[in-house]
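Hello Y.,

Per our agreement to keep a running log of every chain we model this quarter, I'm adding this entry. I've kept the format consistent with earlier entries: sequence first, then predicted structure.
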Amino acid sequence: KDSDVGNNKENNLEDIDKELLSKNARAIVESNKLTNNDKVGIFKNIKSLYGGFDSTDIITQAFYQSHKPLAPVLRDFYTQQYQQGYKLEYKTENLLYEFLKKENSLLELNTKATFLLPEGRIFFVKNTNNEISNIGITLDNNCIATVLEYDNVLQLHTYTELKSKLDEGSKIEIQE
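Predicted structure for the entry above:
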């Protein structure tokens, strides 16, 4: 429940050890647990009940395992931004994006170029309607921790693989 573990005046999102975050995210995706990439419906509820992970779950769990929970940071941001009590139905990925955008901590990637991604950064895939369609964490060796549409179990993916699945006009924004 502490948005500033360690009381160093930096929230858990800013104060996270990127290498540790990456290591924990890798361990999560290499666990091969059930995914939960259904958007709505009974299958989403069933998979959720049995511990299925979606892309947002990977991020929140990796932060938690790094002893820097993300939820208190987002709760504080939400209550300050919207001047009302925190609502659980608010999508974590949208709130996280808003937080990073407000902090000027996002860069749009050139999806046509090939380069080495920095480790331990959150990224957002935005569709042609500028809506968040996926989210993940960058790992070492240009690998990423995310759940893609066809995943039944958690597995390691590459940045190249993610780019190949993008629709024309989609974009990727990454945390600085």
